[in-house]
């Protein structure tokens, strides 16, 4: 047990806030090293001359910050941060699982597995379009086609302006940065606009590769409680007041995995909170571009703070690696520099190809075909799971299925894999350690090329649901 006694005589705020701050400082300075055990709450309360409740509230704060973990009967132990400023916990060990992923990829390549764990745009024929536009680029720019980009063409920004514009909002062309996919753009924003040790707020269920990537570059994710409409404004404000995140990542247009669409009133509340706390916003609209949103984007409400991100991976073709960011004024250059430093930057051919697809109208035409294919598959899924509870949208290539009793999401995933169907559990989308259980899985159905394959895999999942967990047994 660690012998440690902080001085609470100086500082502002309630005693429990000061104590939490002293614990965080001691962890960061190494006075409380990773793995050390904090004093029992009752003992520390006695030594400090405060109530046990004061110590308990302080311990809860640092636990929420990902700095400690505790179990009844064992005590509270320091789990982070490490030297790079990230927290040490179980999340570190699940960022990479190369052996498992390789085995799954091999089985998929061999035709053994159906992937319902990927939500990229379904494959529709676009070879003729790519061939024609690529030939035009070769004729117009025979030398540049083998180069990477050295400056940003106004046409590329015009393409981003056209792609991201809606009936509610049009971004400023000069503030648009073309990037190599939505994910790399988001990581570039985090790298450009924050520093190691900064905190990044993310909805408790979200695209978890964002907080994982943030951890890898020394930022500290914080989970924001959510309801059926997304992040709860009061919860976000509480986190801002107590933990001072620099940035929040949100998907208000069509959220992954819950399919929540944030209403306008809530977006305005969040924009107001962002202004009060100088909180930057990443607004990921990669699924929202398939969805005709009734509410204006956050970028229209707080343009000085919001990075609005969209791309083609879910609506046209994932392999184009085409995305754009509408940045707050005077920040696009920083994001482009971060992109080059982190990824090496975009190639001329792919950037020019994506721009021509948008400006010629070809991208929109393909998007309509993709949307029609998604709608057909959504109808198949709704029919297959009729009678069960799930969230779905005619424009989204996945559903958020509530499992009936007594299924657990992890057990259902394992049972589905034995039926040669890969799905995602709720844990894949949790952005931090949480005791809250949703008993849900995400089933994404855009990957298989053949609709008959989709229909067959859905039937196997339906049979599992109907048989109940009692029909599944593990011998491992």
Description:
The strands form five sheets. Strands 4-12-11-10-9-5-6 form a seven-stranded mixed sheet, sandwiched between helices. Strands 13-14-17-16 form a four-stranded antiparallel sheet, covered by helices on one side. A two-stranded antiparallel ribbon has the order 1-2. The chain has helices at residues 15-29, 41-48, 52-64, 90-94, 98-109, 127-140, 154-164, 182-193, 209-216, 233-243, 264-277, 298-301, 332-343, 348-359, 362-384, 409-418, 451-467; strands spanning 68-71, 75-78, 114-115, 176-179, 199-203, 220-224, 226-227, 230-231, 247-250, 280-284, 306-311, 323-326, 390-391, 398-402, 421-422, 424-425, 440-444. Strand 1 (68-71) and strand 2 (75-78) form a beta hairpin. The chain is globular. It has three domains: 15-88, Arc Repressor Mutant, subunit A, CATH 1.10.10.10; 93-123 and 365-471, Aspartate Aminotransferase, domain 1 (Alpha-Beta Complex), CATH 3.90.1150; 127-362, Type I PLP-dependent aspartate aminotransferase-like (Major domain) (Aspartate Aminotransferase, domain 2, 3-Layer(aba) Sandwich). Helix 2 (41-48) packs across helix 3 (52-64) and helix 7 crosses helix 14 (348-359). By secondary structure, it is of the alpha/beta class. 42% of the residues lie in helices and 13% in strands.
